[in-house]
Amino acid sequence: MSIKSAVIIETKEHLEQLMAEEKQVILYFSSVDCNVCQAVFPKLMSLAEGYPIKVIKISVAEQTEIAGQSSVFTVPTILIFYEGREILRESRFIDFLKVERTLNFIKSVQTGQSEE
């Protein structure tokens, strides 16, 4: 079993290309000097392991334009997109139960097991 890894965004164009190619993505906004970000990221990656979703890591210090356009003003921030639409936003104090429920929803929709 391979371990999921995050895609590191280097340019706005790179992000736009990935968003156009992928049906569902997690955008993870962080900063290298944020201790909470460093603690949250491995937990997010572990959680995302069992789901058909790409994790995209964005440094707010390096990608200020992307952060601003995404209305990200604090880190860590997790945005989950499904079919190009934001369906979950968690900032600072991440509720991993919400993240997991959202990932379960995406997985159920993809496998045709919609919730009744």
TrEMBL record:
Which processes are annotated in GO (biological process)? cell redox homeostasis
| Ranges of residues in domain Thioredoxin | 8-87
Its domain of life?
A: Bacteria
In terms of InterPro entries, this protein maps to: Thioredoxin-like_sf (IPR036249), Thioredoxin_domain (IPR013766)
Q: Which SUPFAM superfamilies match?
A: Thioredoxin-like
Q: Name one Pfam family in it.
A: Thioredoxin
Name of the featured protein: Thioredoxin
According to its UniProt entry, this protein's organism is Desulfosporosinus lacus DSM 15449
